[in-house]
Each structure stands twice: as structure tokens, then as C-alpha cells.
Design a protein that fits this description.
single chain, two-stranded parallel sheet, two-stranded antiparallel ribbon
């Protein structure tokens, strides 16, 4: 491993000197913290456990990549927004209404963990398949119209949840949610490219909403739990349950979301490969060519999700926020990311931190969710644009249309996002809308393209 203090940037195997290593690691944590914790608060997971999972999975992926391919793959693993609708649907089907910032009962989280472990196993399988047959073969099953449409459904299907958080969960404070939304958008747009501060618009928006609440509605923030919380506390660990009535539903509705996260993870790897090789060229050093390790990267993703599922953390993904941070700072150091993982693990044992995060008002998070959930949907559209999806092709239109209507309509229009088509013993509460939409799109695309190839 190369030790360097070069101000021009760090390649994946470079190790900054200790002082810089810690600061660069902390910057990564600040960048991933708002979104990763927000998923936990939205879905009833324990924030400390989610931090623990993020730290462990990041370190494990880095170690595996260094040992397996000779170079660190510089990615940070945090909570994925793609699974939010599935979590909320499973909780509701089990009779639990998730409240912002309040952890769900252990038995609810345990059933979700079964699905999270299975999505990790699915990622590992796909990773090995890609290593064997190549990415082009997988693209035939998961073309951009499917992955992009599923991403749209995931984001837009959460639209009502964001509106409820902003307006109806705690009535009368929609104005604070609106201010939070507007300033967050302003920070995202106006601070872009302005250095480190431009990397934390979500955190800045949350701070503005929080301070505004303290000024105009201080009764909505209760610090009693913070005062009562211990300084040091072990993360809340739960163990997966593969025997519950809704386990099959959880496995299906959660693991199928890999349809969206697999192309997302691959796109992030390609992005990193481009920037890393450009820096290597500027420094007259050998290019790393990270893009040749797509299969390996998905295997590491899957290992991370399995680890998350074992302890009770949310399913993860490598973070675009941290990728952007690395592109801006030209810091692609694997050891710096390992330092971030260590800091995450240490924070997971700070009891007062979890308690403080729980004081964020639901309407403030609702203002953030209006933006974040919409961005997930818009990224699906961007994915299809980037891949030049032909919207004049009848089958492409049909596949996208079915996914959108079944996924969005089913998730918003039916209780818990379950279609009223039950299968006793497997899907007793109905078919999960988003997962069903994804499978329908895949099947339609494969069947009709096969028919056309046979008839031409």
C-alpha cells in the first residue's frame, strides 16, 4: 500500500498520513450520515444498528476487494432508499404502523431481516453470474426500461408517505415542512460545486428545519429522552426470523428491489472507474480499471446486505453522495473509507446520538422526504435517458407502462401497498405491488422479445 501526502489526490491504494486519514474519514461519515439515518427513522430501524451495519459492510467490502483483486474499490455502503416502500408494507401487514423515529418491534424487524439477507444472497449470485457470462447477458433480463421504471415506481410510490409526514402525521406544521423543502433544494442547487459544504445539502436543510421548529414550535422537540439516554450504549441487535407467516412476502417484496440497486451499484462503479483512471493518468501512474470488476462489486454488495440482515440494519447500497464527494476532493483512498467505517462503528455505541436523532420532528423529515423520494423517481428517468431507451418501441412502452401503473397505483391505492390478490400461506395479505410490477415487467419483456425473435 502506498503512503502519500500528495495534494493532487489519492488513488484507491494510497494511504494518507494519520491526521488527514481521520479527517477524510470523518468527512465521508458526515456525507453519508443524513440519508443513512433518515432511512432508519422512516422505517422503524434502530439508528445505532444501521450505523454499525454501514461501518462493518464498508470495511468488509474494502478488505475483500483488496485481498481479492489487489485494489480497494472505493465505495461507502449506507442505507438504500429503494427498500423503504417494502419495509413499510411489511410492517403494516404485520399490524404495526411505523412512526417516524420510533423503532418497530423486534418481531417486525426480524421478518424484514429475512428479506434483507435474501437480497444480499441475490446480489452475490448475480455478481458471480456476471463474472461468468458478462454483464451483457444480465442486461437482457434487466434492460434499462425495467430498472429505470422500477426506480421511478420506488420513488413516486412513496409520494403519499412524504406528504403524510409533511402534513398529516402531526397536523398544522406543513409550513415548516415547506421551508425545509425549499431551503434543501436551494442548498442542493446553489452550493453545488462549492466544496465540502456543497456535499451536505440534506444535513443543512435538516438543521434549518430543526432550528425553525425550536423557534416557532419548541414544544414539538423533547430533549428528555436525550438527557435520559446513556452516553455509551450497545447497538440494538435483532436476529432474523425465517419462520413467520409473512416471511415469504418479506423475502419477495424486499429482495426483488435488487432489480433497482444492481444497476445503481454498477453505474456507481463505472463512475468511480472513470475518475480514478483520470487521476492516475494525471499522476503518470498505472490506471486501475475498476470497471472490469462489476461482478466482484455486486458480490461485495451482497455480502454487506447479508451482514446487515444478520444484525438488524437496513439493506444497503454504495452511496452516490460519497462518490460525488470523492470526485470533488479527488480522494479515492480505500484506507480513508476504512477510517470512515471505523468512525461509524464507534458512533453506533454513542447512546445520546441515537436519542438526539430521535428528536427530529416528523414534519421536518417530511420536507426532506418530499425532495429525496422524488429524486429517486427522477433518477429512474435519468437512467433511461442515459441508456437511450427507445420510447417509440411498442414493447418498451408496454413494459414501462405496466410497471408504472401496477407499482405506483398499487402502492398508493391499496393498504400497505399490497394488491388484493392473496395466495394463502405465501402472500396472505396480497401481492406486494412494487415487487409484482417488477416481475411483470421482466416477464413481459422476455416473453415478447423471444416471440419476436422466433417469428422474424
Amino acid at each position: 500500500m502506498t503512503t502519500t501526502v500528495s495534494p493532487s489526490g489519492y488513488l484507491p491504494n494510497d494511504r494518507p498520513e494519520t491526521g488527514r486519514l481521520i479527517l477524510l474519514g470523518f468527512q465521508h461519515v458526515v456525507t453519508m450520515f443524513p440519508a443513512t439515518i433518515l432511512v432508519a427513522l422512516l422505517c422503524g430501524f434502530h439508528p445505532s444498528t444501521v450505523l454499525l451495519g454501514a461501518g462493518i459492510s464498508t470495511i468488509v467490502a474494502l478488505v475483500l476487494s483488496r485481498q481479492g483483486i489487489g485494489t480497494f474499490i472505493p465505495l461507502f455502503y449506507g442505507s438504500s432508499f429503494s427498500y423503504i416502500a417494502a419495509y413499510l408494507g411489511i410492517a403494516k401487514a404485520m399490524g404495526h404502523e411505523v412512526k417516524f423515529g420510533v423503532p418497530a418491534p423486534d418481531e417486525v424487524i426480524a421478518v424484514m431481516q429475512a428479506g434483507i439477507i435474501c437480497t444480499g444472497i441475490l446480489n452475490i449470485i448475480v455478481g458471480f453470474v456476471i463474472r461468468s457470462v458478462g454483464k451483457a447477458a444480465v442486461d437482457k433480463v434487466l434492460p434499462p426500461v425495467v430498472t429505470g421504471s422500477v426506480a421511478c415506481v420506488i420513488g413516486f410510490g412513496l409520494a403519499k408517505a412524504a406528504l403524510d409526514m409533511s402534513m398529516t402525521v402531526v397536523p398544522g406544521y406543513w409550513g415548516i415542512a415547506l421551508v425545509t423543502l425549499i431551503v434543501t433544494i436551494g442548498f442542493s442547487y446553489l452550493l453545488q460545486g462549492k466544496g465540502f459544504i456543497g456535499m451536505i445539502p440534506i444535513l443543512l436543510g435538516a438543521v434549518v428545519g430543526y432550528v425553525l421548529t425550536l423557534i416557532v414550535a419548541p414544544d414539538q422537540i423533547n430533549f428528555a429522552r436525550v438527557a435520559a439516554a446513556p452516553v455509551i450504549a450497545a447497538p440494538h441487535i435483532t436476529f432474523p426470523n425465517f419462520a413467520g407467516e409473512l416471511v415469504v412476502t418479506a423475502i419477495f417484496s424486499i429482495s426483488i428491489m435488487a432489480i433497482a440497486t444492481i444497476p445503481e451499484s454498477t453505474a456507481h462503479l463505472y463512475q468511480m472507474s472513470l475518475y480514478v483512471d483520470r487521476l492516475a493518468e494525471e499522476q503518470s501512474r498505472p490506471k486501475v480499471h475498476l470497471d472490469q470488476y462489476v461482478g466482484n462489486n455486486l458480490v461485495y454488495d451482497g455480502v454487506g446486505d447479508v451482514l446487515h440482515g444478520l444484525v438488524g440494519a437496513t439493506a444497503g447500497t454504495n452511496y452516490g453522495e460519497n462518490n460525488s464527494l470523492m470526485a470533488i476532493t479527488r480522494n479515492y483512498s480505500g484506507p480513508a473509507l476504512m477510517a470512515a467505517g471505523v468512525i461509524c462503528i464507534l458512533l453506533a455505541f454513542v447512546g445520546k446520538l441515537s436519542a438526539f436523532v430521535g428528536t427530529i420532528p416528523v414534519f421536518v423529515s417530511g420536507g426532506l422526504a418530499l425532495y429525496l423520494f422524488g429524486v429517486i423517481g427522477m433518477q429512474g428517468i435519468a437512467l433511461m435517458q442515459e441508456n437511450k431507451v427507445d420510447m417509440f418501441d411498442p414493447l418498451t412502452l408496454a413494459v414501462g407502462a405496466v410497471i408504472m401503473v401496477v407499482g405506483i397505483g398499487g402502492n398508493i391505492g391499496f393498504p400497505g401497498g399490497f394488491l388484493p390478490i392473496s395466495i394463502p400461506g405465501i402472500f396472505p395479505n396480497g401481492l406486494p405491488a412494487i415487487a409484482t410490477a417488477a416481475v411483470a415487467g421482466i416477464v413481459l419483456n422476455l416473453v415478447f422479445r423471444a416471440i419476436r425473435e422466433r417469428t422474424n
